[in-house]
TrEMBL record:
This is Putative glutamate--cysteine ligase 2. Its EC number is 6.3.2.2. It comes from Rubrobacter radiotolerans. Belongs to the glutamate--cysteine ligase type 2 family. YbdK subfamily. GO terms for molecular function: ATP binding; glutamate-cysteine ligase activity. It comes from the Bacteria. It catalyses: L-cysteine + L-glutamate + ATP = gamma-L-glutamyl-L-cysteine + ADP + phosphate + H(+). It is an enzyme of class 6 (ligase). Residues 13-34 are annotated as: Disordered.
Amino acid sequence: MPAAGLVNILRRMRDTGEGPARGPLAPASGGEITQEPLIPKDAFESTEAEGTLGAEEELWLADPETAKLAGGAQSILDAESDNEFSGELIDCEIEANTAAHKSPAAVVGDLRTRRKVLLGHAERLGRMLGTSGTHPLGDWREQRIIEKPHYQRLKGKLGWLIRRNNTFSVHVHYAVRGREKAVYLFDRLREYVPHLLALSVNSPFWQGENTDMHSARILVFSRSIHRAGLPEPLGRWENYAKYIDFARRSGAIHSLSEVWWDVRPHPGLGTMEVRAFDAQTDVRRTEALVTLTAALCDALSAEFDSGDLRPIRPSREIEENKWSAQRYGLHGTFSDHETHEARPTLAFIEELLDYLAGASGRDLSAIAALAEEPTESERQLEVFRETGSLAEVARDISRRTGELTAN
């Protein structure tokens, strides 16, 4: 068929409403196709208090007898406020959302309160509640994607890839004022994704197998789904705006939430969102990671304000360190971006903490302690060595989720 004939057919389908749905396109008066922008006009310009913090924590539900993932999130959502809990892809997963706070302790106080609410619902439903980067033996083929248009749309688009994404994370928000500052924080934070991941690894098992990774979550999610993982640097706000416009107009995305980078701007909230962490079973570790995020963003914000801008590292170099964090946790090596020499990961963590101690007024003692104790992934592996049972690993995660929330 000549190209002109195909164009005429497509125009007739558009004008009469025949054919596939228009997706994000909407007809304006006169029959012209227009789109509402995804980025608010005042993005990063109306932030009230820079450095305000918030967090989102993803948790799982499981059957006490089998320790396998089991549904119940929709029942919880029907009983609770949309402001505090939300559905997250599958019916065995529930997300707790905090309010905005000035301190990491207040953020995690919110998370503790929400965990207690969820523990009550889990008991009502006859479920175990737990949180870790992956569930040790949950089978993605047995899970039901919730009846939420956003996730049903992703199911249609991504199919097998999205259905197998049974992963759990904790996301930390830091409020930023100024678009160019937001871009600078975005570009600089990328360099520290490996550090953040190494401290938070909590997913050595996937589908009942030992993956030989300390973070199988990264393998399953950010290395298999496009628009996930480590992003390229942006350089300027216009580059971000142009990319979002491209992705929206092409129909690739319907909302900003379909960009799943390890670090991403959140124009609607005026925050930088750090998404590199595996979910932490011990809520005290979560508080340390929120503090680390806040201190790091404080330091990068001060860099921008002073004009002492640092180099922006290429993704290909950062990826090498991220791989080491994924594979070995705190016990691998990172490559120095200046000398290109490999040194122990813990040495880089210590250097980062030394830098933050001079650049941020926050108490970093809890973060330093994280580097001196086993990670959550090591805890899972130890329980498996002792019991030989992944069901017991899952039960240990659930027990600790409850006990450490109460303490």
